[in-house]
Amino acid sequence: MNIFFSNSAQNDVVNTVKYISRDKPKAAKKWAIEIKRSIQNLSDFPRLGRIVPEFSDENIRELVKGQYRIVYKIDIETNTIAILAVHHSKKPLA
Questions:
Q1: Does some domain include residue 93?
Q2: What angle, rounded to 10 degrees, do the helices at 25-41 and 7-21 form?
Q3: Angle subtended at Cα 1 by Cα 47 and Cα 18, rounded to the nearest 5 degrees
Q4: Is the model's pTM score more than 0.90?
Q5: pLDDT digits over 34-66, tens only?
Q6: What is the CATH number of the domain that holds 32?
């Protein structure tokens, strides 16, 4: 499956890397690499993540990586996965 990021998800990643790198540049780089690896796995295993409880839609799923949620939507018809958000688990989705 092809994977793409929404503008919001791209901003989430950029802002998180900036935030982490203020105090720990190496940790920010490591975090970005781990997020990228997790997302790449979705290409072969799109249903790897759990259904997002807030939506109860089997095509809206999430991977939890540390304290961050990677929320994505599977579109079987177009063979794509849209990364919708990458944010801290303490923040609400809405």
A1: no
A2: 150
A3: 80
A4: yes
A5: 999 999 999 999 999 999 999 989 999 999 999
A6: 3.30.2310.20
